[in-house]
Amino acid sequence: MPRTPRPGTSQAAGRVRRRTVQAGGLEVPLLEAGSGPLVLCLHGFPDHAASWAGLLECLAREGYWAVAPAQRGYWPGGAAPDGSYRASSTGQDVLALIEALGREQADLIGHDLGARAAYAAANLGATRVRKLVGMAVPYGPQLRAAWVADGDQQRRSWYMFFFQTVMAQAAVELNDFALIDRLWREWSPGYELPETERAALKDTLRAPGVVNEILGYYRQLFTPPADEANRALEARASGAITVPSLYLHGADDNCMSVELSDGMEAVFTSGFERVVVPGAGHFLHLEQPKTVADHILGSLNS
Question: Which pTM was predicted?
Fold first, then answer.
């Protein structure tokens, strides 16, 4: 049955709070707003939890408890306890956080690598996930195929291949994270991240050890785990998704081609909707916040 959130009309309902929660062997920093049914908002790269602030406030005003955790590796002391930055590990983090927050179930909203974590969580714990919203990184075998055979996507994904090299960390940190500024410009043409938000993002990346850890997401992307148990876990995390799902992709995304989301419905077995958002690139929740929020709320409230 559709879940009806509590009416949340007061200004206080949307105020964002900070705290840490012990989950999955980590003290996870998070932002949260509101109360009610739980919605987890999962960030990607090169980003951090703070970019969800506007959506957290919006969800809170609609009667949800909106929570945006930092992904493993994104804070000092947040290095992966098992050394893994694979989809199955970040998916398990999501399920552990749902439990740590005292809930049986949550809705998931994931952007970029956060979408990958959400897809994995939905596979590893389908009963713990009520609704799923993925953004900017599609799900299914077509993405890996594109890295092998699609010259256009290979060009867009150059940074993933560069991050395999020993030069990557120095290059990311050089000239006050100029490479990060470049990625934002290229991936979301015409969008300018406000300076205060840009500075906050760079503060996240500047914290000791963070860049080295987050490069692990990409350095483990193209190789399977060495041991059989983790290979089996990765396989479980990449099956057909049985959770009702919405997928949003910016029409002008210069990181992931919108065509990569064609045919995604084949791997979703309990309802799937894809929406291409006009006037948006990779960071569509910041570029078109009202449009994105309206689609998300339409899905969560249905």
Answer: 0.95
